[in-house]
Amino acid sequence: MHLACSAARWYRFSMAVHLQIRDLPDELHGILRERAATRGLSLRQYALEILQEHCRQPTVDEWLDGLEHLTPVPLSTSAAEAVRESREADDAALAGTR
């Protein structure tokens, strides 16, 4: 009995989850179907690819949390000075094009 329970538990955790999207607007379905066909993929393969790519990107909150772990970089000039110099250079370039 113990082996059967272990096998059932392993099977349950190793199975992929089935995802169903209800009330998908026809227009969105058509766009997804066309894009999948253009790539030579089934709609299922294309949707999985989109979801995988989306999940590779951090959310804004995850990205912001990651900033806390970065080592500060000392600057030779202040950020305000760098912005001022950049704006002055942009203004000079624009004045030269007139």
Could you walk me through the main structural features you see in this protein, from its secondary elements to its overall organization?
The chain has 98 residues and is an all-alpha fold. The chain has a domain at 23-56. The chain is built from five helices and no strands. The protein has helices spanning 2-14, 26-38, 43-56, 60-67, 79-96. α2 (26-38) packs across α3 (43-56). The chain is elongated, with a radius of gyration of 26 Å. The model has no long low-confidence stretch (mean pLDDT 87).
Question: How is the secondary structure organized here?
Answer:
Elements (H helix, E strand, L loop, with lengths): L1 H13 L11 H13 L4 H14 L3 H8 L11 H18 L2
Helix pairs in contact: 2-3
Which tags fit this structure?
98 residues, mainly alpha
Short description:
By secondary structure, the protein is an all-alpha fold. The protein has helices at residues 2-14, 26-38, 43-56, 60-67, 79-96.
| Gyration radius, rounded | 26 Å
Low-confidence stretches: none
- In round numbers, the mean pLDDT is 87
Shape: elongated
* Beta fraction: under 5%
Largest sheet: none
Topology as a string of helices (H) and strands (E): HHHHH
Count all strands and give the number.
0
Gap between N and C termini, in Å? 86 Å
Number of contiguous helices: 5
Give the class from helix and strand content and strand pairing: mainly alpha
Portion in helices: 55-70%
